[in-house]
Amino acid sequence: MTLLKGIKTLFTGTEDIHGTDILIEDNRISRIERDIRVDSSGGEPPEEIDCSDMVVIPGLVNTHHHFFQTLQRCLPEVQDSPLFDWLVRLYEIWKHMDEESVYWSTLVACGELLKTGCTTTSDQLYVFPEWAGGRLADVEIEAAMKAGIRFHPTRGSMSRGKSSGGLPPDVVVQTEAEILRDSERLIDAYHDPGPGAMVRIALAPCSPFSVSEALLKETRELATRKGVLLHTHLAETEDENAYCIENYGVRPLELMERCGWVGPDVWYAHGIHFTDRELERLKQTDTGICHCPTSNMRLGSGVARVPEMLKMGIRVGLGVDGSASNDSSDMLGEVRNCFLLNRLGGSAAITARESIRLGTEGGARLLGRDDIGSIEPGKTADLVGVRVSTIDRAGAVHDYTASLVLCGCNHTVDLNIVNGKVVVRDGRLLTMDEEEVTRQANLAARRLLKG
Predict the structure, then answer these.
(1) I need a labelling partner for 208 at 20 to 30 A (CA). Which of 41, 187, 386, 408 fits?
(2) Does residue 115 form part of some domain?
(3) Within a 10 A sphere around the Cβ of 170, how many other Cβ atoms?
(4) Strand order in the sheet with 54-58
(5) How many CA atoms lie within 13 A of 96 on its CB side?
(6) For residues 189 and 157, is the Cβ–Cβ distance under 8 A?
């Protein structure tokens, strides 16, 4: 048992509560009350954590990432490139990926996510060099479990190389039979559909310009048969619109519709360039959108129409996207950028608390989960705490919840609890040696670039 004592401000996802306690039993939130007393005469007393100087919120949920890209941050030759040029250059580095680079990049990404308030993350691994062996996705899952984060790996895929009119070099694409066979293997080996699950698999062909229409349809059939979710990039740039019209005769969303890729089990990353009619189709089909504000600004891709989506009732969550286009895995920073970017549409476009909800409940809904995303009895114990008596929050005594979005020069949280286990305490990771991970990741980054 763990007892969070005297929380200064608890934001449950719907309301602020001051001066309360939270009792965690096993991996569940058991009680939320003032001055909880636990009879420990029959066993060990709960571990008590003083939260009298903390604002506590639900754990943040990251619904789009590419862990392997943590090793390509700040590359000078792509810092000012649009998406398609950026991809073409980076594919020449990614074709040298191996199990070691996937392992260390995953620990870097998960460590940074945990330190910035994330408790659940997805990831889209879509580069599988032909010589790297068939366990890259397994290695990623193993590393994420070591980090202690709740994980939704999405088995990415690319089947159209340059010789078939796609963007990636042929060496990093796979045959459609290979993709479907390995996708089913991963589901059978790792997918847990039960409440409180630490690993759930989704299927995620990379984009309309890197897979065939046939693979999209067959992946939909496999996902339906196995009961898993579907994910892909969509409507990220105008280049993508032009590509789909030229190669398929329709815009990206219409292509997805004719492949069966709409519905409550589908979420897209980005969703910037949708028309009014397309937004209405997203609403009608209950298809979700992962908003990636930092990446969209970094690559100059555009601004998603998030306030309109929310008013229409479209499901929206947040994602940090790949660390080569962000260039960080700062989840609390993503919440802040969501707030700031969407305020360009007017001061009433979005509130600080709405931004937090997109990063918590919004992400949980995209991932089809009702056991995380808010703090209430019976929910899985995923929550984070940030100390408020720091110089970057001095003067924020009026609204500590909003201070997580509006204030702060450092987005590191002081406490992170995933599935009832403390994984960050006093801003330090408990599940890995940060210095060693950093050293090994830097070695791997140099090795990939040299290759």
Answers:
(1) 187
(2) yes
(3) 14
(4) 16-17, 9-11, 54-58, 383-387, 415-418, 421-425, 428-429
(5) 14
(6) no
Residue 65 and residue 54 in one domain:
no
Backbone angles phi, psi at 151, to 5 degrees: -130, 130
**Total number of domains constituting the chain:** 2
Residues 44 and 174 in one domain: no
**Location of structure tokens 């397309």:** 278
Extract the tokens encoding 209. Answer: 């310009």
Per-residue pLDDT, averaged over 433-437, amounts to 97
| Burial letters 110-119, b for 16+ CB under 10 A, else e | bbbbbbbbbb
Report whether the peptide linkage leading into residue 327 is cis, meaning its omega lies within 30 degrees of zero. Answer: yes
Decide if pLDDT at 126 tops 90: yes
If you ran DSSP here, which 8-state letter would residue 121 be given? E
Of 166-180, 259-273, 344-358, which gets the smallest average pLDDT?
166-180
Task: List the end-to-end C-alpha distance of the chain, in Å, as a whole number.
Answer: 49
Burial of 428 (0-12, 13-18, 19+ CB in 10 A): exposed
Q: What is the mean pLDDT of residues 396-421?
A: 95
Dihedral-angle region of residue 270 (phi above 0 means left; psi in -120 to 50 means alpha; beta otherwise): left
Same-domain pairing of 204 and 285: yes
Say which CATH number the domain at 404 has.
Answer: 2.30.40.10
With a cut of 90, say whether residue 77 has pLDDT above it: no
Confidence of residue 280 (pLDDT cuts 50, 70, 90): very high
Looking at the fold, whether 120 and 10 belong to one and the same domain comes out as no
CB 18 within 8 A of CB 26: no
SS3 250: coil
Across the range 217-232, mean pLDDT stands at 98
DSSP state for residue 361 in the 8-state scheme: I
- The Cα 35–Cα 19 span in angstroms is 9
Containing domain of residue 96, as a range?
A: 60-366
Average pLDDT of every residue of the chain: 95
Percent of the chain residues topping a pLDDT of 90: 86
Q: In this structure, are strands 202-205 and 229-234 parallel, antiparallel, or unpaired?
A: parallel
Contact criterion met (CB below 8 Å) for 350 and 322: no
Residue with tokens 């000012």: 80
- Type of residue numbered 22: I
Largest Cα–Cα distance of the chain, in whole Å?
Answer: 72
pTM recorded for the entire structure: 0.97
Q: Residue 273: which CATH number?
A: 3.20.20.140
Rg of the chain over CA atoms, in angstroms?
Answer: 21
Nearest one of 361, 370, 416, 368 to 154, comparing CA atoms = 368
Task: Classify residue 308: in a domain, yes or no.
Answer: yes
For 378-387, b/e burial (b = at least 16 CB within 10 A) is: ebbbbbbbbb
